[in-house]
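[Discussion] Sanity-checking designs against the backbone

I'm trying to build intuition for which residues belong where. Below is a structure token string of 298 positions. I'd appreciate it if someone posts a full sequence so I can compare it with mine line by line.
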């Protein structure tokens, strides 16, 4: 009798261990699948939350990134519109169909500079590049300069063609508290985006243009009055870029100033710096300081 009890106890123990082993494995595998499914659901929930918080993403049908995120010059630009002998830029009329387009003083400067340049044409058939007369610089809905109904305005443009060969200027996008970079409130299509504070995640290399964030009181042009002749702007100059200043061999700003020499070619791009800055510059000088100081003094 005791033998039977011991045998039954051993059998039950083996069964219990087998159940724990195989059942635990299945349970663990099930938990792993559940965790993966939960992660996908969590992503979907946040994805839906992002869409709900952005009217722009809703209009795109839920695409987190713009539809033409992969645009490049060879895929989204029509070179047949560009004359090899001359490069021309067309700006749309400011009030198509008698509908006024409010334009900020800052965007008006952008338009004026282009119109006064030798690249401007009032004939769209001769243009390689098209610029909107719709102010898209400030796309913060809470801003006084925010232009409404941009999608409907763009659809009325005769030469829009899904944005191909167009360039869209932007300084601010999104609104508090998210400031979504891609939320311009309209689909830019295949247009080139000239934008300030653009991240590397959205910048399309070789297609988009990164521009500085300039303020509204920035002058349209520099130089003495009368230096700019109508239809001959920008002037043909010997130098494209010039800078002369202190290099900051240590402290705040040193990384930026120390990298300027990469742009210097000694011909049309001249950037010269000196290490002679502060009391301890000699103690922190590097191997380039001798050459840089001599070039700066020259």
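Best answer:
Here's mine. Compare freely.
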């Amino acid at each position: 009798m005791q033998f039977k009890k011991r045998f039954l106890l051993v059998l039950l123990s083996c069964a219990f261990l087998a159940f724990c082993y195989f059942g635990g494995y299945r349970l663990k595998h099930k938990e792993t699948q559940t965790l993966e499914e939960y992660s996908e659901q969590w992503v979907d929930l946040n994805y839906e939350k992002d869409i709900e918080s952005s009217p722009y993403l809703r209009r795109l049908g839920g695409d987190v990134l713009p539809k033409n995120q992969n645009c490049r010059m060879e895929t989204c630009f029509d070179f047949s519109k560009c004359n090899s002998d001359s490069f021309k830029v067309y700006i749309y009329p400011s009030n198509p169909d008698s509908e006024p387009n409010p334009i900020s003083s800052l965007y008006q400067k952008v338009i004026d500079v282009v119109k006064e340049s030798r690249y401007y044409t009032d004939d769209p058939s001769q243009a390689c590049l098209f610029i909107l007369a719709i102010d898209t610089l400030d796309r913060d809905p809470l801003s006084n300069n925010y232009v409404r109904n941009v999608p409907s305005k763009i659809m009325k443009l005769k030469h829009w063609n899904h944005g191909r060969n167009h360039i869209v200027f932007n300084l601010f996008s999104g609104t508090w508290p998210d400031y979504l970079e891609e939320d311009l409130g309209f689909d830019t299509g295949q247009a080139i985006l000239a934008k300030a504070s653009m991240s590397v995640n959205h910048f399309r290399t070789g297609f988009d243009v990164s521009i500085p964030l300039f303020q509204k009181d920035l002058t349209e042009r520099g130089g003495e009055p009368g230096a700019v002749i109508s239809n001959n702007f920008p002037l043909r100059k010997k130098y494209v870029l010039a800078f002369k200043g202190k290099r900051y061999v240590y402290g705040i700003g040193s990384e930026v100033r120390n990298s300027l020499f990469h742009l210097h070619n000694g011909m049309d791009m001249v950037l010269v710096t000196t290490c002679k800055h502060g009391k301890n510059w000699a103690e922190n000088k590097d191997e380039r300081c001798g050459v840089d100081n001599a070039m700066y003094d020259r």
